[in-house]
Amino acid sequence: MTEIIVKPFGKKAHDFIMRRPQDDKRYTVLEGSVRSSKTMATVVKTIVQYSNWDVPGKRFIGGVSKDSVMRNMLLDLFSIAGRDAYSYNLATGELFLFGRQYFVVGARDEAAYKKILGATIGLFIGDEIVEFPKSFLSQVWLRMSPDQARFVGTTNPGNPYCYLKSEVLDNPAFKPDLEDIHFELSDNPNISKRAKDAIIASQVGVYALRYVKGLWVCAEGSIYKDSWDDKLNTCTNKTEPIALKNAGGYVEHWYAIDPGVDHPQATYEFYDDGTTIFITDEDVWDSKKRQHQRTDAEYGTALETFMGKANLGCQVILPPEAASYRAELTSRGLWVTDADNSVKEGIHTISSLMSRRNLVVNKDKCLRLYKSIPNYVWDEKAARRGEEEPLKLNDDEVDAMRYGIHGHLPAWRAQGGA
Fold first, then answer.
1. What burial letters (b/e) apply to 46-60, b meaning 16+ CB within 10 Å?
2. Looking at the 3D structure of the chain, how many domains does it have?
3. Among 232, 269, 328, 339, which is least packed, fewest CB within 10 Å?
């Protein structure tokens, strides 16, 4: 069984999988380009090696969230191991794999370290570790008190000023106990040239440097500068597909809103023809310029007017924190769902769609969005702190666009093509 699993891997992944855990460095980081077999190598090593390895202390598998761990690691792990080899409680995160107990934890924010307080850690397997807060990683390593304890983490590159890069990977104090295995697309022999070319074509700018070339680089300047084309990503009232809004011209039609209290409220209309997302209309209420802050009821009435009676059955996407406005819209019988408001992941989704020309904005109807896209920039001060954040200025329109697309489209389509 081991030979069948391991044979397709490239040399870097194969050597990592087949090496006994006791022969690994205390900390092993697999970093580099997407689809280069980092995560799958870790999944297979978990089955081939860690399942037969006795180590003092508890075993953890961590990611940005338990859901992301399930998507990125556990589904493949369960498929390879077989149904009789595991049991998993999604609510508690308790996993039994080949009789070994693991705890699955999310590490999205600074409070995450509390999930491992008091634990003696023998094995920690981390996914997307560049996203882990410093407080969480530091607490993991502090609790790896057994001499035999091991940490294995996978990640795509990020900001070179972030904690993982500047204070760990580039820190001479870590070098004796750390192995940094750098992966590139060429290290995965199971991806065809056609698939690799598609991956390369789908990434531009900082995402191409990080996710294709595997470089640790800063995101700087205009966020969508390398993705956005003023001609190819826009249409006008005259050039918008004539049949788009007719029956058979689209496969889905929905709305998304960035609610406003002390900033403008932006609402957008989306049509999907199965290949391209068209943003066809906008409604923006700027309470400061109008010198009137609408109530939730007033916003609800305005939304119904904007949607039109025939479209009141369409989905309306709101960020999760807009509780009172959601209650207002729900009371009116509107179909309201929560947006996935993951900022960096959402920006990546929008960038990928733009670069493939699968996102088109009607610049006659959506003038504010059209003007805001080139002016949506990274926060330079945050970048120097090792954090990656858009500058919170005039971002209502682009936020509403992100709410309407990221999390709404399936991941394979958002990042991989039509």
1. bbbbbeebebebbbb
2. 2
3. 232
